[in-house]
């Protein structure tokens, strides 16, 4: 798992590659590709322009991949006009008819590299440039010319990617795409092909995000064929194929889901299959589909709990993904999303939290546990979390649930986490700089809010409370509170505020809740709490909190109203007036929305399908939950009215809510008239649904076929296990052979390389010899001319030589005489050296005598001195 420092270094390194501020080479490649794209779009039938366009895309793709990994928000893309214009040309080129297949492959590869791991870019390309429409156009109109098998696979993969979790506008083009996708799925030859997972994923995304898709399938009579095909695909060997098929069966065929899959051992096997895909699948979208399917299973947790599915052993592999997938922010975000959905369910929260805090290190070489990995992700700042700026906030929420689990079970936080690190995390969150003009103001505000919630949770632990009070001191609380009061756009007469406004309201009440909780332990916090409640600017925040749909926020507001010492209760009447004004505005907005929904409903007439039954079931469940909540609320109101310790503040609060209820009742009466008009249509749907009951016998036959397929699959699994062992042995042998061949190949390549080097050297030597030969020929001609001149010069030199030789003879005789003189001088010098030696010996004797004389003299002085 990346440490916090490693995450920051990674973010800073990748931010150096941002498109608007890249190096000159990056800008040059972008501008070159943009220029070629303009020329190509101006004359798309000129094949000579496609080759430089392909080369430009090939050069730009690696740098664009690095750039995409640093994108934190849409403003990073829109700040560069060249990038926006280039995306526009890319979207236009895809829709052109009969473009070269090689160019289309380069464009698909470019889009894949920049959008595969960055959901921000995917949403931008879809909303801004409708990339789904462009890909659908290419799929429908270029099937015969540009879409070979490779391009078809790339196009379907991209369409699968861009339809995931993104609503698609239904049109005739999308119906053509649906027809083609269903045809490919029903094609038996494509069962083991590379396009089958993508086709199933596209169909799944359209059925989930586009209501008209399932209606269209039912109106075309293709659901029965798909039902039989899905049953056979459940025995496929591909993980993406199996998980997409399983999700389609669960979402589209609820009779099979409730009667076959959610029963007995099948439920446990399905859970194991989903977890196996989440942990081991190499496909990003297959893992996402598996997570979504597991979240839907958690909503029916009663069956899962009855079968003993949730255990530490079954959930720990999912927890380990938080460590092993540290370099994939979107995967980490999806895993955290799974934990958040599961922790919201009261029945399964304990299982997931216990598995998270008790999971050991995923790697034997590192000591990072999943819970430590969550803390490290939470330490990131939103603007330093590329691709997923909400990753730190999700991590803090998961950490909040984990710490809450430890405190509820009376466990020490320090046994699982470093308290110093967690307290430092709280400080970093609360000291996040908020700028209302910053594009990540929502994520940063959310980080402050989550940091305050975490501080409240930690303050319940007596061993950490002192450190929390030192970090979250009154000055910091006052700064956070005053910033929201002065800059939050929560107005008195408008409900359409900025995206971060509601988070700001929650921050205010979390600060007040923290101060209220700590007032018994710290006098400065208590004094600040009393001062903040007296601020008149706080009233709109109370109104916004009371009419919100957040039950935790409403509980905090009511708790503060009832516990305040006269500051807020004195303004109850003012708050009630503000609430009535706000409710009236909300009422008009909801009526306008309902009219728009009714218009849209009239445009798309309902078609009887299996999803209609599921929608009615969901409505019945919601109504049942609402009735239970209403009964509990009535009982609570009766207890409050009968309470003898009730003061005037509760009656004023109930009057406010009675005004709210009366407004809601008037709205319900208006909506009831619309409901009557739809009952008739619903009866028609019930009649059409009755026709599906006759399919019971066919369902039984399919169930028997499913059992036979499962038996064959088990037998096939045994056979495949044996074949797998044989294949593994063969693979090991082949690997040894491959290693030997690689060594031989390397030797041959080295030999070829040496031969090439010698050949180049010989060529260079031959060229040098030719040049030297020409030079030698020229020199030979010049030497002939010089030879005559040399002969003349030689004759002159000969005469001079004879004269010089005579002089030399005379000089030799002089040398002989001088040598004899030198010999005589040497003899005389030797005699003189002997004389010198004798003198030196005499001098040495005299010096010795002088030394002895001086010693005798010193002895005499010493003797005379003593006397």
TrEMBL record:
Superkingdom: Eukaryota
Chain ranges passing through the membrane: none
UniProt protein name: Protein CIP2A
The CIP2A N-terminal domain, residue ranges: 90-550
Pfam families reported in the protein's UniProt record: CIP2A_N
Annotated coiled-coil segments of the chain: 654-856
Record keywords, A-Z: Coiled coil
